[in-house]
Amino acid sequence: MKLLEGKKALVTGGTRGIGLGIALEYAKNGASVVICGTNEQRAKEAVSKLMEAGGLEHGYKIVDVSKLADVEKAFSGEEFDIVVNCAGITRDKLFMRMTEDDWDQVIDVNLKSCYNVCSQFVKSLMKKRSGKIINISSVIGLTGNPGQVNYASSKFGMVGFTRSLAIELGKRGICVNAIAPGFIETDMTDALSDTVKEQLLGQIPMNRLGQTKDIAHAAVFLASSMSDYITGQTIVVDGGMLA
């Protein structure tokens, strides 16, 4: 039996990178998946990959999850068993050069989107007295990093959001957890120089960057019945970087 058979999952930021990796593993494990993003061409290509991975009905929504009104309009009347908040951006620069817009964009897309999306679905999950909410944070939120005050703040905020919401929803049988990825091979890390990559590898005991499947496997576990007694936790998947 597939771990997520019969489940319906939403993955924000699911058109590429970690979000797409999670969506693909969900499809392979029997879930019907809806991804959302802001680029329709990428979304269509991603859904094609989902159809190849699992033969169920999959779809996409073009929606800016940083805007509550857009989320409410896009998902009116819809329900999900699994909600994954993976939408995220970076606007890196030293704090003394960081503009208000640099701050607001990152906080809105990375953190406020968690409120927007969860507020849309939490009532239906409470009625069913079951469900899984998974927030994709980052080790940067746990350690901090020069040039990423906005990003680190948003990702640490997700940890507090996860813990508090887990306490509120636990009595209704809903699990709320976070995953904090380390350095994962994505479009963003591909753009790094070889020198920077070597420096990163020096911080990782397993001596390799992570793959999107490393995060996706953790997300499948947290979405499945195997994690029904785990809530309010942040699982670090970083190859031992924070050990």
Q: Topology, pairings included?
A:
Elements: E1 8-12, H1 17-28, E2 32-37, H2 40-53, E3 59-62, H3 68-74, E4 82-85, H4 100-128, E5 131-136, H5 139-143, H6 149-169, E6 174-181, H7 187-190, H8 194-201, H9 212-223, E7 234-237
Parallel strand pairs: 1-2, 1-4, 2-3, 4-5, 5-6, 6-7
CATH class: Alpha Beta
Question: Got a strand count?
Answer: 7
**Per CATH, what is the topology?**
Rossmann fold
Main beta sheet: strand number and arrangement?
7 strands, parallel
- Fraction of residues in H or I helices: 40-55%
Task: Write the CATH architecture name.
Answer: 3-Layer(aba) Sandwich
Listing every helix as H and every strand as E from the N terminus to the C terminus, the arrangement reads: EHEHEHEHEHHEHHHE
Calculate Rg over CA atoms: 17 Å
Major sheet: arrangement of strands: 3-2-1-4-5-6-7
Number of helices: 9
CA distance, first residue to last residue: 35 Å
Number of domains: 1
CATH-wise, what's the superfamily? NAD(P)-binding Rossmann-like Domain
Structural class: alpha/beta
The proportion of residues in beta strands is 15-25%
Low-confidence stretches: none
The mean pLDDT is 95
Globular, elongated, flat, extended or rod-shaped: what is the shape? globular
